[in-house]
């Protein structure tokens, strides 16, 4: 059991003013639990992410992908798109990553898999990727009590609203009452 002096000391150690501004409680940013995921919603993940040449070159080299379409401006200029394109794996990573704060931060157990990954239009240096997600299915796990299997349809659009990436992802979520 703590008393008011202990709370003040703890707050001082955290550089927080206990009771400042009439704050009654803290709210920790997290994703949504299984029960909170809405089948009738489209989750818009903002802000978008403008993809730079540096992002593309760094990601491509970090992942040991020497594809000239991502790294060689002279060669790429002679190809059908006339310029280097953003690595599609970077596009996918940012698409999924954009959903984390809103949907899965602290509420995910595991990614179970990806299907139907498509890149119908190229993403170019300087384009901004906007992500959105629709929950297409959910069910309680039959083998893992307190968890649920959820299917997410992720869509990435550029600044003009053109779809540049789509992916279906299956995720294992915590149910609220079972979460650690």
From TrEMBL:
Residue span(s) of domain MaoC-like: 40-155
InterPro entries per the UniProt record, alphabetical: HotDog_dom_sf (IPR029069), MaoC-like_dom (IPR002539), MCH/BMMD (IPR052342)
Domain of life: Bacteria
Family: Belongs to the enoyl-CoA hydratase/isomerase family.
Organism encoding this protein: Cellulomonas biazotea
Protein name: MaoC family dehydratase
Organism placement in taxonomy: Bacteria, Bacillati, Actinomycetota, Actinomycetes, Micrococcales
A Pfam match: MaoC_dehydratas
